[in-house]
Batch of 2 targets.
Target 1
Amino acid sequence: MTTLRSALPRSIPVTSKPPLASAAGQLPQRRLRVAAGFYNDQAMAELVRRCLVDEHRLKASQLTLLQPQDADPVRYAAVARRWTLASFSRQQAVDAQRPAWLLRLLAWLPRRRTFDSAVQRRLAAGEFALLAHGISLAQQAAVVRDLRGTAHRWCADAPRLRGSKYRL
């Protein structure tokens, strides 16, 4: 089995940055809706994708590789709808008490649009984006660590913490 560290060229370091912490301690952990790593070439993004599947047992449906031409608003909307609905079908088992139409509506609130516009900007700049979605809490830290360590930029979207003093 290929590991991410052994598969990458030696010139590309895999870093592990410490998580953010507050003065009172660690931030509360919350599930990410989606995380994205940005790469200058498709081969590198594909390599990271294969390694995430091998190392973290992600399903191919949990990873979406976007190309620069996906920055077109119509094309991006179609792709984003596909992975958003796929994430919702997994999330519905957890949020069974909430109607599906409400979950779909919540996905397009301003925070989602902020994430989407950040991804579209990077795609328009000629970069490739590898999106990981529907990741369990158990897999999340390792997947984000590998995305952060291999990509030259990354971003993520998570639901806002209710009743918390933290505004992320």
Target 2
Amino acid sequence: MFEPDDEHAQLARKAVEERRLHDAERHLRAVSEDSLETQAWTLWVRGRIAVEREHSAEAEPYFLQAAVLALIAANDGGVPRRSALLRLAASSLEHAGRVQRRRDRLTNAERMHEQALRLREAHGTVEEQWETRISLGLDAAVAKRLQDARGHFSRAADLGRMCSVDPDRCSAVARAHLATVLAGIKLHAEAVIEAREALAAERKHDPGSEQVARAEMLLGRLLLAHAEAISDENPPGCEAALTEAEELLQAAGTELPAFSPVNTRDAEACAELLAIAARLRTSMARS
């Protein structure tokens, strides 16, 4: 992440990234807002604080004002940090777009993310481009435009492999989203391939993590959907998919609650999917 030019703004940014919100506010009070760049960073941090506190309506104007100030400062012909300012504007638009999506303003969200992507493709890092491709995919998916979402997540998966920071994790996130979208348009075999790649990437990134268990659950769920789709035309393939799905869902259902009691609902969902698998087995045995 690029840094503000003001020391206290740097500390505020670091604190909000680490969710130390009171520290972020304390550092902001010490910021000398004597430049447009510093003012833009201050607004960006305030927007992030509001988001962390789930005050979306409050966050939106902070991010939009931050983007405007950063763009104004960047267009000053003599500014020495033009690229950093444009990246700040892009980050502000990225976060503003997320707020818009949370508030079901999908057209606005997509427009802001498209603007952020243009800036990031010209001035940002691969990681920043990946982030906004994911956002555009989510915008499209929420709007039920699954083919558009497919394109964005596919591009994000390509970018993920090129990321210099956590490429396996970036690839896994994009492929998991892509798998979900492919399942939504009934491309079950392709969805399973992407979910399998996502699981492999999560295991490579951090073998014992909660995200591995979640990737197991996703692959298990999509294998079950694939098994249901081919049960009549390909019983052996259905049996193989069903067996693997059961193994993955049993593993995920056991592992997820160990990470957090909040994951009990996911374990219950795994149990429900296993019940569906059992009913499918019974149906197959009768036919």
